[in-house]
User: Which sequence fits this backbone?
């Protein structure tokens, strides 16, 4: 399996590396003009990016992550149903981190008849910026993903030490709520003082002596204040020469003693002394930018004390709110893209959008439909260039049915930029010119950039989109700056359609939340796999790992017939999907499996299915159990261990098919025509039935029949299901 490293261990390992420098964000070895952004130049970069985004016709994005799948069985399979595929994407976005974010606004220049791109490469890292309200961030790392990033010279030091941190909208909201509760009226003792202080008696001799000494010193200081008020000597700057520990200061226009050099235990004792012996003194612990200040402040009256508390509380609240706003960090970029409602362009970007939602908005919804509806509120116009590449015969002709990966598409559609040449002998010439501008320096000549660097990949994505639009018939020479490109009729039908699964060709429409087919794609684009009827699927796991798919098929077809099994697909070495040719065969197989496991006679031992059941740990169920397991946040390496960790203990679970429900309904009515609505309701249900001791097993004769039947399987009695 791909190893997973805790982020703290990763940080320690990479921070000691001498192979790269944290200054890479300011300079780069490639001659491609790319603006690298870290926390040191984030504010200025955000300001200029805001202007570019507002003027842009579209904005291309790309993300680099620390991993894709948290377990091998969470990879994308052809047996992934629409809702299960979303759960796998959700798991990936929740478990892995985004370490680099590419943002590249593209603006059409009508004077030079070219697009002007402004590529930005943000290093981001989910650093803990707030001391309260938000738990420390944790994420997984796949060694294959880290090795991939290292292969393309990713600067891990720049990411960890200089990456821009962030808060999601929900994290910001929770932090603000926490701050407001912390400084709530009526809880003054919990916000202005050390929480550990209590009215407990001091019995330790050392503590008693210290408390008495503090009482005397504070009495002396207070007496000096009163004498000065009555026309006596001036307030002394210290108490009895203790300049380091006691210093007279003014706080909120009130005389106060600043306490320095005391331990936390001693401060608690001083706080108790003030509370017990001095009604006109109050103890305050005031937080500053980098440290807290411990004070004993003189107040004229109870009303003056309440006023002081309110002033301090309001100031502390304001400071905490400012800290929270400052911790928002990179999310300001996401808020900018959302507020401007620009056309967002990505390449095979469903996982990217899921990461954006999870990291910068809030927890991902439970279903793909809910996710689509919510995303559409924040980003109403998203387009996937991989969709465009498969939607047009001309584009497919130029791609020559080659890989539609980002680098391949860029090499085919934008050869001059990919090769860093302006040769006229290239077989394909880009129709749309693109220039690059970084920090007011504009260029049309550069060498190719570093692939799999998010900023450059975003640039490639935008260039591919511009060329694809040209081939779809969009003439940018006629394009008006006031025209919203997302409303162009030639690409409008592709807006918000993203590949949920490239393997299955599943497309989700973010505008409706519905799954769509590739009806708009070219007829030349063939689906790799036929559509799967998931009611025909049985999930089997926990069998002996030595069993191959061919052997599992043979075990089943010897009993249910040679054409009973359409295919057997390995989830991993501990689990398989078995696709049956008919829905009723699912029930037959599950009932027979359970009956064999309950029987200890010689016939059961010699039965063809005995090989599959060897070891006594084989589990089986319908596809719905697979969805249940995928929805769990747990990610064990092996699927069989995952199922056990999720809490699935039974050996066989059957989902009654609609066909059987209908058949049982007719049988029930013919036997009891006056059964009424209750019987009708029960027969109409499609229930999950766990086979337990009350379930009718097959008779000995039926097991024998199944042993000898290889073509015509006896009708198994499932009337009680």
Assistant:
């Amino acid at each position: 399996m791909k190893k997973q490293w805790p982020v703290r261990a990763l940080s320690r390992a990479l921070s000691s590396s001498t192979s790269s420098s944290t200054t890479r964000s300011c300079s780069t070895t490639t001659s491609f003009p790319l603006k690298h952004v870290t926390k040191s130049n984030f504010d200025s970069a955000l300001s200029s990016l805001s202007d570019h985004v507002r003027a842009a016709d579209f904005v291309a994005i790309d993300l680099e992550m620390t991993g894709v799948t948290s377990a091998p069985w969470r990879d994308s399979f052809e047996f992934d149903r629409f809702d299960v595929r979303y759960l796998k994407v959700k798991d990936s976005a929740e478990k892995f981190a985004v370490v680099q974010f590419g943002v590249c606004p593209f603006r059409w220049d009508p004077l030079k008849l070219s697009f002007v791109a402004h590529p930005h490469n943000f290093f981001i890292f989910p650093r803990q910026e707030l001391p309260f309200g938000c738990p420390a961030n944790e994420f997984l790392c796949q060694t294959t993903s880290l090795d991939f990033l290292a292969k393309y010279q990713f600067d891990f030091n720049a990411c960890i030490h200089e990456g821009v941190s962030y808060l999601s909208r929900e994290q910001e909201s929770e932090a603000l709520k926490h701050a407001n509760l912390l400084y709530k009226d009526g809880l003054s003792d919990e916000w202005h003082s050390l929480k550990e202080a209590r009215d407990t008696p001091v019995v330790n001799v050392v503590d008693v002596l210290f408390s008495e000494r503090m009482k005397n010193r504070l009495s002396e200081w207070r007496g000096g204040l009163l004498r000065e008020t009555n026309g006596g000597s001036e307030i002394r700057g210290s108490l009895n020469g203790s300049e380091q520990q006691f210093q007279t200061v003014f706080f909120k226009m009130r005389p106060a003693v600043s306490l320095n050099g005391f331990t936390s235990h001693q401060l608690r004792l001083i706080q108790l002394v003030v509370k017990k012996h001095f009604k006109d003194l109050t103890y305050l612990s005031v937080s500053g930018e980098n440290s807290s200040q411990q004070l004993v402040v003189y107040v004229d009256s109870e009303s003056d004390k309440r006023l002081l508390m309110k002033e301090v509380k309001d100031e502390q609240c304001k400071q905490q709110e400012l800290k929270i706003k400052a911790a928002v960090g990179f999310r300001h970029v996401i808020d900018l893209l959302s507020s401007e409602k620009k056309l967002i362009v990505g390449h095979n970007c469903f996982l990217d959008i899921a990461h954006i939602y999870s990291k910068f908005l809030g927890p991902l919804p439970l279903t793909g439909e809910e996710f689509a509806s919510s995303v559409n509120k924040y980003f109403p116009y998203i387009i996937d260039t991989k969709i465009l590449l498969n939607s047009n015969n001309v584009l497919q002709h130029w791609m020559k049915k080659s890989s539609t990966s980002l680098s391949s598409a860029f090499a085919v559609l934008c050869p001059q930029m990919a090769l860093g040449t302006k040769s006229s002998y290239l077989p394909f010439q880009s129709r749309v010119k693109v220039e690059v501008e970084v920090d007011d320096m504009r260029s049309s000549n550069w060498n190719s950039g570093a692939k799999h660097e998010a900023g450059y990949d975003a640039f490639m994505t935008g260039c591919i989109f511009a060329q694809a639009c040209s081939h779809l018939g969009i003439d940018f020479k006629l394009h008006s700056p006031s025209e919203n490109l997302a409303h162009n009729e030639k690409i409008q039908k592709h807006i918000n359609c993203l590949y949920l699964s490239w393997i299955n060709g599943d497309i989700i429409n973010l505008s409706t939340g519905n799954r769509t087919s590739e009806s708009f794609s070219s007829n030349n684009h063939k689906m790799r796999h036929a559509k799967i009827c998931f009611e025909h699927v049985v999930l089997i796991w926990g069998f002996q790992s030595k069993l191959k798919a061919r052997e599992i098929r043979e075990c089943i077809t010897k009993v249910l017939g040679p054409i009973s099994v359409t295919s057997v697909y390995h989830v991993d070495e501990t689990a398989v999907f078995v696709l049956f040719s008919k829905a009723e065969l699912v029930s037959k197989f599950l009932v027979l499996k359970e009956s064999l496991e309950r029987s200890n006679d010689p016939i059961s031992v010699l039965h063809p299915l005995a090989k599959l059941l060897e070891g006594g740990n084989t589990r089986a169920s319908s596809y719905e159990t697979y969805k249940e397991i995928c929805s769990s946040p747990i990610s064990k390496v092996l699927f069989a261990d995952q199922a056990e960790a999720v809490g699935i203990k039974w050996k066989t679970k059957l989902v009654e098919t609609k066909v059987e429900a209908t058949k049982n309904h007719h049988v029930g009515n013919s036997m009891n025509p006056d059964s009424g609505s209750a019987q009708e309701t029960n027969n109409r249900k499609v229930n999950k039935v766990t086979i337990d001791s009350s379930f009718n097993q097959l008779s000995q004769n039926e097991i024998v029949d199944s042993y000898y039947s290889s073509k015509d399987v006896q009708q198994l009695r499932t009337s009680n299901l």
User: Anything to note?
Assistant: The chain has a mean pLDDT of 81. The chain is about 40% helix and 15% strand. The longest strand covers residues 98-109. The longest helix spans residues 302-327.
